[in-house]
Specification:
The chain is α/β, with parallel strands linked by helices and about 290 residues long. It has 2 domains: about 140 residues, NIF3 (NGG1p interacting factor 3)-like (Udp-n-acetylmuramoylalanyl-d-glutamate--2,6- Diaminopimelate Ligase, Chain: A, domain 1, 3-Layer(aba) Sandwich), CATH 3.40.1390.30; about 120 residues, 3-Layer(aba) Sandwich (Udp-n-acetylmuramoylalanyl-d-glutamate--2,6- Diaminopimelate Ligase, Chain: A, domain 1), CATH 3.40.1390.30. Helices cover about 30% and strands about 25% of the residues. It contains 8 helices and 11 strands. It has a 6-stranded mixed beta sheet, with helices on both faces. The chain is globular. About 45% of the residues are buried.
């Protein structure tokens, strides 16, 4: 039997250099190596091994990795496929079936999740850059919660609060969000009194709990509960809501893929980083 894939520790070093596991919120999140395959996966015919990036490790994404000749040795899945304790591993459960099949094929799984959220240059900074146009257009940028002491990420933490140098029309902000996320439609909640936006609170994924007590002209997030949205409007604030994973998915190709590739270039093995073609938002607007 082959040994644990030699590529795995190299991928882990690269991912954790960008998104140190110490940044993750371990009080609830399950960040880290979730599946360590006991055997090596075969590389492509040209000797290339691949790292597959995805937001969710669905059955479709697992099938993509398991295709003959895919060369996928490691899946980096932003959301942890194992979140709560497992009492069994069976083929009846779709997620467990994927894990068993991946292990048998020599494919390991790592989930960086909230480490990517909190990192400097992580998903929330990507969202902030996209709506502000870059730090040169900002008065200041702060974290909303849990500032870190991790070396290189002293300015990191959960969420971002951006104050623009010049206020924007809400309609212009919506256009920027659509361009950044690639969405044709987003949900917008706005009070009648709002004219322009100068401060924007940002949270990839679900921002409801993180925005509690935060004052900003606009909340930009993937999810906001009904009563949270009502309270936002009642307090004279607006919200742009895109769907949970739509605030995260574009980050993979725009930032994570090229940064990982750059770090893995120094390795002796031929390692490619690819973004899943089968990962998608589970909900679509018809």
């Amino acid at each position: 039997m082959a040994s644990t894939p030699a590529i795995l520790p190299k991928v882990l070093r690269a991912v954790q250099k960008l998104y140190p596991i110490a940044l993750a919120d371990k009080t609830w999140d399950n960040t880290g190596l979730l599946l360590e395959a006991p055997i090596s996966h075969k590389p492509c015919a040209n000797g290339v091994s691949r790292v597959l990036l995805t937001i969710d490790l669905t059955t479709a994404v697992a099938e993509e990795a398991l295709k003959e000749g895919s060369g996928v040795s490691v899946i980096v899945a932003y959301h942890p496929i194992i979140f709560r304790g497992l009492k069994s591993l069976t083929m009846k459960d779709t997620q467990q079936r994927s894990l068993l099949r991946l292990a048998a094929a020599g494919i390991s799984v790592y989930a960086p999740h909230t480490a990517v959220d909190a990192a400097v240059g992580g998903v929330n900074d990507w969202l902030a850059d996209g709506v502000s146009g870059g730090r040169e257009h900002e008065e200041k940028r702060e974290v909303l919660q849990n500032g870190t002491k991790v070396e290189g990420h002293e300015d990191g933490g959960m969420g971002r609060l951006v104050e623009l140098k010049e206020p924007l029309e809400l309609t212009e902000l919506v256009k920027r969000v659509k361009k950044l996320t690639g969405l044709k439609y987003v949900q917008v909640a706005r009070p009648r009194s709002l004219e322009k936006v100068k401060t924007i609170a940002i949270c990839a994924g679900s921002g409801g709990s993180l925005f509690r007590g935060v004052q900003a002209d606009c909340f930009f997030t993937g999810e906001l509960g009904h009563h949270e949205t009502l309270a936002t409007i009642e307090n004279g604030m607006s919200a742009i809501i895109c769907g949970h994973t739509n605030t995260e998915r574009g980050f993979l190709a725009a930032v994570m893929q090229p940064r990982l590739e750059e770090l893995l270039k120094v390795e002796e093995e031929k390692i490619e980083v690819v973004v899943s073609e089968d990962d998608r938002d589970p909900v679509e607007i018809m």
